[in-house]
Design brief:
The chain has one helix and 31 strands. With about 400 residues, it is mainly beta. About 45% of the residues are buried. Keywords: Signal.
Amino acid sequence: MKKHLFPLFLLILGTNAHAQQDFFALTGKDTQSIVFNDFRAIDVANGISGESIFTAESSPKVFSQARNSSVTEDKKTFNHSQAASMAALAYDSFNNSLVYMPMYSSNIYVMNPKTKEITLVENNVSRATSCDINSHMTRMATGYDGNIYAINNAGTQFLQISRKNNQYVVNDLGIIKDDPSNGKNSFTAIQTGFGGDLVADADNNFYVFSASGNVFKVLTQELKAKFVGKIAGLPENYSVNGAAVNSKGKVVVASAKGAALYEVDLENLQAKQLPGSLNLHVYDLASKYFANDRAAAVNPVANLDIYPTRVDEHFINVRVNDKTVKGNLKLSVYDISGKDVMKQNLSVKDGSLDQQVYLKNLVSGAYIVSITSEAGKILLNKKILVTE
């Protein structure tokens, strides 16, 4: 069974000239059944395929977290890093890694796309079995809080994969149930809710785009999936198997059947075909972007930036090297609810600044760092993740 998410008004206006480095696809071979082919970067704006990162024929370097050693996996089982049946992929931009799960396995894999090194995260929380389609993990995305989330077909497991003290920890957040208003458009039924993919918003809620084209908003606090609508403008019998937010704030969808990519407007669920003729058999898409992300609403000044974005020691560095940036700047930090939690003044001399800022009293979580000029013009919005 092939992979059987929606809308919200977005403020994302920025574009990215290197979008092909921010979108990844889990692709399959040209067959009727699910057969893993590779992970690859793609340029969705131009319909161009990028580097093939890891294939079914690659020689994997797998390190077991539980055993703290390298392992050689049994390719005759469902439990290995190149399993034929895979339909769940996420891109963790904070750790520059691809995270994925075989459909019939509880194993979680974290791969560095540059070194091709893979960490095997064994867990006893996931309960996927080959004979139970309800249990198959087919939807995965990085949440705005920096954790990875995965949902099985029937919504009976909602996994959170977090990183603590350089170890991955898996928690089951519970069962996602249908909102009473869903009626015949059930999130938990094969025909209307199974498969597809997952995207996240800046409030750490999720949208499931099911294989049928139905879209559901998943409220994480309530563990409910509310039917929002059905994508319009797709060809008849188009199977929606991959979904990810692009730099414009729209969702790109792809099919396992080798069809074109489509861009879906989240305000009205209208789809339009994207340029190019990739026709890849896409089982899943992943990107670094989020719906309703204020951090993406402003294009930064060319030579003004903050780093690191994953903050382990409660310090960030602010660097300016731009003659157009003058005088006093104000740095503000907001939590994901929009609350102002910190302010600091900065002084730029001769267009130059290189200053360390202490993020006092900030607990672990996602924040937006905003830098404004003396006139109140926003020069930079950037998301950071504070970790323990």
